[in-house]
Amino acid sequence: QQQQQQQQQRAASRSRHDLEQRAASLPQWQHRVASPARRQDVSQLPLSPRELLHSCTTVLIGGCSFWVEDMLSRGSFGCVWAVSLPGSRKGVLVVKEIVCNSGIALRTAEFEGEALQLCTNLAAEGEECVSHVPKLLAMDVESLNNETWRVRLAMTRLPGDPLDDILLKLELVQEPQEPMQRLGKALGLVHTMLRQLSLTMVFISMCVFHRDIHPRNMLMEDRGSEQPPHFGLVDFGLAVEAQAWQKGGWRLRGAAGDCRYWPPSAWAMFIFGAEELDRHAAWRREYEAHLDLHALGLSALEMFVRVAPTMQTRKVHDKDDQEAAILAGLLDLREAWDRYWEDASRFWKVIFGAYSSGRPLGEAKKTCQEADAHQVIAANLRELAVVVRRLQQACENFTGAPLPRASQVFQVLLNSVSVGEAPEAPPSWSSIQFLLEVSPCKVPCSWSIIQAAIGDLGLKDSKVEYVDDDGDHVTFALEGGKLIAYCNGRRGVGVGETADSSGLVTELKWSNCSQEGWAGSIADQFNAGGLIPKGMLSALRALADTAGVPHNIPADDESEQPSVEAEPEPEATPAAAKLRPVGQQQQQQQQQ
Length: 592
Prior knowledge:
Elements: H1 2-24, E1 38-41, E2 57-61, E3 64-74, E4 79-84, E5 93-100, H2 103-124, E6 136-143, E7 149-156, E8 161-162, H3 163-172, H4 179-204, E9 208-209, E10 218-221, E11 230-233, E12 240-241, H5 242-246, H6 264-272, H7 274-279, H8 281-289, H9 291-307, H10 322-357, H11 361-370, H12 373-397, H13 406-416, H14 429-435, H15 448-454, E13 463-467, E14 473-479, E15 482-487, E16 490-491, E17 509-511, E18 518-523, E19 529-533, H16 537-547, H17 582-591
Parallel strand pairs: 1-6
Antiparallel strand pairs: 2-3, 3-4, 4-5, 5-7, 6-7, 8-10, 9-12, 10-11, 13-14, 14-15, 15-16, 17-18, 18-19
Helix pairs in contact: 2-15, 4-9, 4-14, 6-8, 6-12, 9-13, 10-11, 10-12, 12-13
């Protein structure tokens, strides 16, 4: 035992020296590849391994000791703590601790680490744009018992305070500025935020969709009058792998994040399910690819509304006064935003109330369906678009002191925020960059840059998940080069006397079936298994080949689809009512 403790101490010393070197380079944001995730047995950890983090203690992650300072935030899925390396400066690192009570929650937490590792690798390649997201230093996954795991992520701490807190302060500040000066400041602030974070998303969105962008997950640091503020994006706890999501993973995962920043397609997904999105191509395309774009655009619009001047008592003596037209447009925008926020918050209270109290979401979905939440939100967003377009025109007609970037900022808001209708040209992060006049050389022109950064993270088809004919949630995951099987979040192969809780798969057996919608049956080496849906065989075959597991799975046919992420809804969604995009509804009404 003494020899083992000495070896652990030497390993911790080497790891601490390595991490200290990385921490010393934090201002340049040039971190090398972080320590790989390690699954540990808690019996090997020193000092109260089952104890959750608390202030004034030491925690071992990736073989390195971190001194825990204070809790920074507590969210729905974990707590974030300020930490430091012994003997180093304080306040530059954080640790996120997540307790997972299911296999799905464990995989979600692990993927957050993989997403941060991607950002770390991009930074190592010299991509400065990813300095706006945290970089992973180390990750540990600890099994507390057969059903509970604890994930700890050590990462860099971005500078600044939550954007929502800063906006609240700016709203309360009575600056002695002329309205047009404050308008110019608001436009510059929004332009800087959009420019920094949209450039970051150009890179990240090729591999990861965040799904929870809003001002509380953004940080802002004021760097004085000589430099623009620095914006950051944190909390990848709901992130998904982009390719798997677009290949069908969105069907099996519920709408997530703060619903006040959802586009209409997310509301339709929450209330009616994937089948309704299949009926309307515009909604499906939006939900597949533009959730983050809408959320960032709506957050930027909120920031503009809260920072822009609100001269409610200003008297307009000349109705043709150009400045008066702008100020009137700002008042209209504030009123339209207040109406949107009131309705969105009303529905948010219904959803969050059910979630926080542990009640089934079916009741919340029914309440939102009866209130036509998707249509109410879409109508409010259309009203906002009309007001923004009118304000854009007023600023373009203004012949007084120039309002730089006004037209650009308003056009970006119009292009990024969805209103529930199919746009003439689908928006993209690159098109947003073009509007903001960002140098095109900073935008990746090929997939090779991202592939080099991905490395061996396992972000590409590292698991196959589906629901079999018995309603069980089946997962085959590639872990450490081995194929591991999960059933309803628990590792395991075989049944009864042959049951093996390790989940290690040594053989896969396929047999054909004639049932509609199923691609056959899949059994493990103990002949335990069930039916697998169509569209999953090719991905499972590739996974088995990668792990070197013998199988007789046939080659994919034209109907096969790659693997998808899976996170079943808590319960079946209500049957879809008569629901159509607004454009189709108006057309039908005109025909009638």
